[in-house]
């Protein structure tokens, strides 16, 4: 069963295409890494799946049974100046159930505490998020994802600027989601992590360069091809390759 399918999907900004004519599907329960050079369109693709960016043409569909999508944006896009505690950030994972003004019951409080404990942040509940380290903040955001209980989980560079211990802990949560048959799509730059945790990889450079088993995709030839595709002069004009 497919969890996400792309049908000639083109995404971009102000009518300038960034990701061109993507076709294919992510199987339900799959762990898929999205890799590619800077500016390849990885974050754009994740935003398209999350529904935060409408397609310029074509479509992206998420299976009805897995409609609940959780999305972790890049750390740089998260406003940490907002005066809110770890507990409140994590509890937002329950908004779908409690609503903006809904009360948090005893059961909900237990679930929030459980999620905070699962990411190793017990004792930090009252800490303002602006006073967390980058790794602690990422742990808090993963606790929120745990509560969201989504069928499809989208992670944009979840391990960037994270130390080895935190990365290992967060990858354990990804493995747990996989065991729970959730679909996880993550933008990653560390190929060793990809090869050891993510069986499937999509290599993008404004279009799909290769998509399949991670070991088949992450070859020097494919990576070189991706770099060249992004550096090609006609990219500067952001022309559609199929329109040429
Ligand atoms: N909001 C935006 N408005 C206009 N152009 C954008 C916007 N966001 C991204 N772009 C452009 O789209 C292209 C792809 O960006 P995107 O962030 O998707 O790449 P990426 O593969 O995630 O890169 P990185 O590895 O550096 O995070 C880039 O040329 C970028 O400048």
TrEMBL record:
Phylogenetic classification of the source organism: Bacteria, Pseudomonadati, Pseudomonadota, Alphaproteobacteria, Hyphomicrobiales
UniProt xrefs under InterPro entries: AAA+_ATPase, ABC_transporter-like_ATP-bd, ABC_transporter-like_CS, AztA-like, Metal_Ion_Import_ABC, P-loop_NTPase
SMART domains named in the record: AAA
PANTHER family documented for this protein: IRON TRANSPORT SYSTEM ATP-BINDING PROTEIN HI_0361-RELATED (PTHR42734:SF5), METAL TRANSPORT SYSTEM ATP-BINDING PROTEIN TM_0124-RELATED (PTHR42734)
Domain ABC transporter: 4-231
One GO term (biological process): zinc ion transport
UniProt source species: Alsobacter metallidurans
Protein's name in the database: ABC transporter ATP-binding protein
Classification via SUPFAM superfamilies: P-loop containing nucleoside triphosphate hydrolases
Gene3D superfamilies per the UniProt record, alphabetical: P-loop containing nucleotide triphosphate hydrolases
Keywords: ATP-binding, Ion transport, Nucleotide-binding, Transport, Zinc, Zinc transport
Protein family per UniProt: Belongs to the ABC transporter superfamily.
MF terms in GO: ATP binding; ATP hydrolysis activity
Keyword ATP-binding: yes
């Amino acid at each position: 069963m497919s969890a996400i399918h792309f049908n000639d999907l083109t995404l971009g900004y102000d009518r300038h295409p960034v990701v061109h004519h993507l076709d294919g599907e992510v199987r339900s329960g799959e762990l898929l890494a999205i890799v590619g050079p800077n500016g390849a369109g990885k974050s754009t693709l994740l935003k398209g799946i999350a529904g935060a960016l409408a397609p310029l043409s074509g479509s992206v569909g998420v299976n009805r049974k897995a409609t609940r999508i959780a999305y972790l944006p890049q750390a740089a896009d998260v406003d940490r100046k907002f005066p809110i505690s770890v507990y409140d950030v994590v509890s937002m994972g329950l908004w779908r159930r409690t609503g903006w003004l809904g009360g948090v019951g005893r059961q909900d409080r237990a679930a929030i505490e459980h999620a905070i404990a699962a990411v190793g942040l017990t004792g930090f509940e009252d800490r303002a998020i602006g006073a967390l380290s980058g790794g602690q903040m990422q742990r808090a955001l993963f606790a929120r994802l745990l509560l969201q209980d989504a069928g499809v989980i989208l992670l944009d560079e979840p391990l960037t600027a994270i130390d080895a211990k935190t990365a290992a802990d967060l990858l354990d949560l990804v493995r747990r989601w996989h065991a729970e048959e959730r679909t996880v799509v993550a933008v990653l730059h560390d190929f060793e992590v990809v090869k050891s945790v993510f069986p499937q990889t999509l290599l993008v450079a404004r279009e799909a360069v290769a998509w399949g088993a991670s070991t088949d995709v992450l070859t020097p030839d494919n990576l070189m091809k991706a770099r060249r595709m992004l550096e090609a002069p006609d990219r500067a004009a952001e022309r559609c390759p199929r329109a040429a």
